[in-house]
Amino acid sequence: MKALSIAATGMMAQQTNVDVISNNIANANTTGFKSARASFTDLIYENMSREGAVTAEEGNTRPVGLDVGLGVQTVGTVRLNTQGGLALTENQLDLAIDGRGYFTINLPDGGQAYTRDGSFRLSAEGQIVNQQGFEVDPGIVLPDNTTAVEISDTGIVSAYVENDTVPVEVGQFTLTTFVNDAGMRPLGDNMLEATVASGDPIPALPGDAGIGILRQGYLESSNVDIVRQITDLIQAQRAYEMNSKAIETADQMMSAANQIK
């Protein structure tokens, strides 16, 4: 009886599903977080009788086959890159991307990561960095005695120095896009890295065709829909219970067969 192992694959798949849903719920208030869903496929089938086989001397053929599937497997987690809501912070270094694109972050090991989290701060040297202290690429350094910063929708950074009434342009934010955003690998700390599946990073300027613009004083909220996640959680729980019931039923049938005298 294959039901025991088949139902076991279903229980393991639903365990993964609940893990993914739980991570979505846990990050419901994480800046720039994109929810994910588990993706499943059926396993191979054991063919006991092939469709189209000849069943009589007259040449009659079997209209359907007899195939028994061996269960389910988790093949990946699909990140849903829909736009999150914009939350007003009034912090002049907070930036939200309204549309496509990622900020580029230079990592200490020389690599680069990408993020939708625009919670930027200043280092001791006046350089714009993320919350982990990693510099934004391209690097932007504010002059000493900067009293205010203006960042345009197209990413131009201007600084008001001391009592000057005319701002000084000090840098330009750029954005990066990918052919397959879902193929990026999450690193934690609200950062992602490029992979072979995502394709090479494509640099762009905010406001270019098909590229988002920047909103100063805002942060992008998580795109997690709590109601949808709770519904998915209930469905996963019921699917887990049904698979466990299938194991219980198979066990009872095997026990009955063993007791035949």
UniProtKB/TrEMBL annotation:
- Boundaries of every Flagellar basal body rod protein N-terminal domain copy: 5-34
Principal subcellular localization: other
Q: Where in the cell is it found?
A: Bacterial flagellum basal body
Question: Which superkingdom does the taxonomy of this entry point to?
Answer: Bacteria
Query: Where do the coiled-coil regions begin and end?
Result: none
Q: Name one Pfam family in it.
A: Flg_bbr_C
* PROSITE patterns attached to this UniProt entry: FLAGELLA_BB_ROD
Give GO cellular component annotations, separated by semicolons: bacterial-type flagellum basal body, distal rod
Single biological process term from Gene Ontology: bacterial-type flagellum-dependent swarming motility
- Write out the entry's keywords from A to Z: Bacterial flagellum, Cell projection, Cilium, Flagellum, Plasmid
Tell me the ranges covered by the Flagellar hook protein FlgE/F/G-like D1 domain, including all copies. Answer: 96-159
**Every Flagellar basal-body/hook protein C-terminal domain range:** 215-260
Q: Which InterPro entries match?
A: Flag_bb_rod_N (IPR001444), Flagellar_basal_body_rod_CS (IPR019776), Flagellar_FlgE/F/G (IPR020013), Flg_bb/hook_C_dom (IPR010930), FlgE/F/G-like (IPR037925), FlgG_G_neg (IPR012834), LlgE_F_G-like_D1 (IPR053967)
Family per UniProt?
Answer: Belongs to the flagella basal body rod proteins family.
Q: What is its quaternary makeup?
A: The basal body constitutes a major portion of the flagellar organelle and consists of four rings (L,P,S, and M) mounted on a central rod. The rod consists of about 26 subunits of FlgG in the distal portion, and FlgB, FlgC and FlgF are thought to build up the proximal portion of the rod with about 6 subunits each.
Q: Enumerate the NCBIfam families for this protein.
A: FlgEFG_subfam (TIGR03506), flgG_G_neg (TIGR02488)
This protein is called what? Flagellar basal-body rod protein FlgG
- Recorded source organism is Salipiger abyssi
